[in-house]
């Protein structure tokens, strides 16, 4: 699995996000967020010496820029944010040996989430 960077936010991030970079064209910034954990952050106000608690989300984020012309390209690009081809090949072998393998089931869940997200935002068969 590809490494991501640790991120923090005040609002819960979406698992998958995209942003079109240019008005004309098919270049997108893609983001995959996982391992999302809700916690409490404390901020001290120096003037009053009071402590304020607020909700904070910690998560792993992976980003890339891709040229996307179809639903299939979108699905592949989102999967590639988290898994290399070698990772996918290895996970498919694990799944053939054991359909209940935790790494394999996590991979399949991510693939299905990518497909569902892309069906919503990129039309199937679109060129």
Give a verbal description of the structure.
A hairpin with a 6-residue loop joins strand 2 (16-20) and strand 3 (27-45). The chain is built from three helices and four strands, in the order E-E-E-E-H-H-H. Strands 1-4-3-2 form a four-stranded antiparallel sheet. The protein has helices at 71-82, 85-97, 102-121; strands spanning 5-9, 16-20, 27-45, 50-67. By secondary structure, the protein is an alpha+beta fold. The longest helix has 20 residues, at 102-121. It has one domain (5-121).
In a nutshell, what does this entry contain?
This protein is α+β, with helices and mostly antiparallel strands and about 130 residues long.
SSE-based structural type: alpha+beta
How far apart, in Å, are the first and last alpha carbons? 29 Å
The domain tally reads: 1
Determine Rg (CA atoms, Å).
18 Å
Looking at the structure, what is the overall shape? flat
Listing every helix as H and every strand as E from the N terminus to the C terminus, the arrangement reads EEEEHHH
Secondary structure tally: strands: 4
Question: What is the helix fraction of residues, given as a range?
Answer: 25-40%
DSSP summary: helix tally: 3
**What oligomeric state do these chains adopt?**
single chain
State which percent range the strand residues make up. 35-45%
